[in-house]
Inverse folding.
């Protein structure tokens, strides 16, 4: 659909054009009119005198970028419009060999790919790239043209040409003349050191779930890794350290000493600041600094990969997809943020495993903007809610993922995800879902539902987990797993660490540990708790001053809405992991707002006092729900509460 180019797209298109002035065959300066095809974003932007005047979604080749004949790839670089064909043709006119056939496509389903409405042929201007023997764009019949696959426009699914919707190609055709320049701009591709090579990768912040998963996968596939973390330096997380060391990952102090002569790359996450000694040492020694997402993108590109994203449920769906593929004999790999119990049982940390097939399932994080780096075989979009960023910003990342998915796209049937649904397999409970859950039964500890003629038993509670299962079922369907093959693996699904995980029961009180940290996740956890508890005693620790400031109003609204009159909430102080964050408020301020709405809410200044109050006041039928992210000691808190309840001699109403 034709759209005015937004500021970000305008700046990006102009930047790509200026960058590629250094390519062979480029003009001496930008022409007055230039069409930029942004392959990474699957977007064509028309520049006039360096100003973007319009943009349209496009589809470049499913096989990627390349100029070789018979490669079915879209040629990169500078081109010139050679011929304008079909100026007076009716919309939907079918062309064969650049000539109208007399047939008109009127929207009916067709198995084949048609060339429709208008054609702009492209002459390559770069010798050996898109011009000359074996790679000539004219001889390869590379066009811009209309298509009968309108729903797939915006994704790389063509056989080499650049496709547009019929309406858009008509408008673009009217704006361009023979001789105008077209730039097919490919993403910057920084070449990384080989993760399977002899050189060692050093991970700063190794204890983080994303970082430790990458390090494990690297060594499991034949590479060499070391790492450091402030938590390890403080003597914390000894069990994780031992597990990583048993895999051959050397742990050293975070003082720059890990950047020795054999180190070929420093891997960092967004949380690692330039003041960290490892970062400073890498800059001094000119060792390449690789963002965590760059390395994950490298692994994604090298496999038939599934990238699961969304603001809630990523870890659970990643685990479910992995379990289904494993149960169906596909032997996949996985890199995720949650601990899978079956991997923990093998003595592993639980968030990574290298299988023997080419299938790789990964959790693709939107929180730091790195989602746009991934080009998976299958992209999965679960939901769009306020979490780390505004929804519009996350939606733009989802659009990029849609543009980069190489084989298939799986999208929930939520209305706010409709813009990404073209050509996607949709899942959910609504009538428009391709994979639809029906006959839903929610139980205190499990669920039952049906998809088509197959009944699924899911041994984890909550409607949100049924939605997660539907996402996994739809994803595995794109990988040719039969529906009947999926029931047994899901019936044996054991959940993942800290996702409504029962720590234990004592004196009729259940203690549950949960990763919930945004409004939707908190609401889902409380709803699930209400399925099996007389009363919910909720404990929440916000993480990070920036995220908490961003979500403060959502927290107030959610706790006030979801907690029942007899429920209780205690909020701990905001978790601070170090760094330069501005600490200009307290969790006590948020609690005061929640309490002002009539909710039983208190600030918990210390864990010791909180444990004592809960142990004293918990009653049979209560469920203690410990929620929060990023702080590994929250599980220890849940265990301490359970132990205190076990040891309590008297139980009086909570005060």
């Amino acid at each position: 659909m034709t759209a005015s180019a937004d500021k970000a797209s305008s700046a990006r298109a102009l930047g790509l054009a200026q960058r590629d002035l250094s390519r062979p065959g480029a003009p001496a300066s930008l022409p007055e009119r230039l069409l930029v095809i942004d392959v990474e974003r699957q977007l064509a932007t028309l520049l006039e005198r360096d100003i973007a005047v319009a943009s349209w979604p496009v589809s470049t080749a499913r096989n990627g970028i390349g100029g070789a004949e018979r490669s079915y790839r879209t040629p990169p670089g500078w081109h010139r419009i050679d011929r304008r064909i079909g100026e007076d043709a009716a919309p939907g006119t079918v062309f064969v060999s650049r000539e109208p056939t007399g047939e008109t496509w009127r929207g009916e389903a067709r198995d084949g790919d048609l060339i429709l409405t208008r054609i702009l042929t492209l002459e390559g201007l770069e010798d050996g790239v898109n011009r000359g023997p074996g790679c000539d764009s004219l001889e390869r019949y590379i066009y811009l043209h209309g298509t009968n696959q309108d729903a797939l426009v915006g994704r790389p699914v063509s056989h080499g040409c650049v496709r547009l919707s019929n309406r858009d190609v008509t408008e673009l055709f009217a704006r361009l003349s023979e001789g105008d320049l077209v730039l097919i701009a490919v993403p910057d591709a920084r070449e990384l050191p080989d993760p399977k090579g002899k050189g060692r990768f050093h991970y700063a912040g190794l204890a983080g779930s994303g970082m430790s998963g990458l390090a494990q996968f690297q060594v499991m596939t034949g590479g060499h890794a070391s790492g450091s973390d402030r938590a390890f330096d403080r003597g914390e997380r000894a069990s994780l350290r031992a597990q990583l060391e048993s895999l051959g990952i050397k742990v050293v102090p975070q003082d720059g000493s890990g950047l020795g002569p054999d180190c070929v790359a420093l891997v960092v996450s967004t949380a690692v600041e330039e003041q960290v000694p490892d970062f400073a040492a890498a800059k001094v020694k000119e060792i390449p600094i690789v963002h965590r997402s760059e390395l994950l993108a490298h692994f994604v590109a090298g496999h038939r990969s599934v990238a699961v994203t969304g603001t809630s449920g990523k870890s659970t769906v990643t685990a479910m997809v992995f379990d289904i593929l494993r149960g169906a004999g596909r032997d996949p790999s996985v890199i995720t943020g949650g601990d899978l119990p079956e991997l923990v049982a093998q003595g592993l940390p639980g968030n990574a495993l290298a299988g023997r097939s080419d299938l790789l399932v990964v959790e693709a994080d939107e929180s730091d903007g790195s989602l746009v780096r991934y080009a998976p075989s299958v992209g999965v979009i679960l939901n769009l809610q306020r979490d780390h960023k505004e929804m519009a910003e996350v939606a733009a990342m989802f659009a990029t993922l849609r543009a980069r998915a190489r084989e298939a796209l799986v999208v929930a049937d939520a209305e706010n995800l409709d813009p990404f649904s073209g050509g996607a397999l949709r899942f959910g409970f609504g009538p428009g879902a391709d994979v639809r859950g029906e006959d839903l039964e929610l139980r205190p500890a499990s669920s039952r539902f049906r998809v088509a003629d197959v009944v699924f038993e899911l041994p984890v509670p909550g409607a949100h987990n049924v939605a997660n299962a539907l996402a996994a079922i739809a994803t595995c369907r794109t990988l040719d797993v039969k529906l009947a093959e999926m029931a047994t693996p899901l019936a044996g699904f054991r959940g993942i660490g800290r996702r409504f995980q029962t720590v234990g029961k004592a004196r009729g009180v259940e203690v549950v540990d949960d990763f919930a940290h945004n409004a939707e996740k908190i609401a889902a956890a409380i709803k699930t708790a209400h399925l099996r508890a007389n009363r919910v005693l909720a404990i929440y620790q916000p993480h990070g001053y920036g995220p908490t400031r961003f979500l403060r109003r959502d927290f107030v609204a959610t706790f006030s809405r979801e907690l029942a009159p007899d429920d209780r909430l205690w909020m701990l102080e905001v978790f601070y992991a170090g760094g330069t964050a501005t600490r200009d408020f307290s969790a006590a301020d948020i609690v005061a707002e929640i309490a002002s709405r009539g909710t039983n809410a208190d600030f918990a200044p210390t864990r010791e006092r909180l444990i004592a109050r809960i142990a004293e006041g918990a009653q049979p039928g209560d469920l203690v729900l410990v929620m929060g992210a990023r702080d590994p000691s929250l599980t220890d808190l849940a265990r301490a509460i359970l132990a205190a309840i076990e040891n309590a001699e008297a139980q009086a109403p909570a005060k």
